[in-house]
Amino acid sequence: MAEVLTTEQIPLVTGADGVMRVRGTRVTLESVVAAFRDGATAEEIVQQYPSASLADVYQVIGYYLRHSTELESYLAERQQEVSETRRTNESRWRPDGIRDRLLARRQR
Fold it and tell me: Is the pTM of this model over 0.90?
């Protein structure tokens, strides 16, 4: 009996917004890569993002390890976008004293 090997697609899709996500989830590539770089195992990443399957997370990590050079510019660009969004949000809604404001709002 001959063995039949199949090739599986990497479970990453790029949305209209240009963000790469694990197929069928809202989990971004950079979220998986950041967790992995911080020392999380695939199992721990799935615990953090239960909508992603363990097999998909392993494939995404493998893809990242094989193509890290090509992905670095994408990851750097995404980090820049996240930083800009954070700065914009913090300039519009000051984080200083937010705990006190939320507690005051709760007591109303």
Answer: no
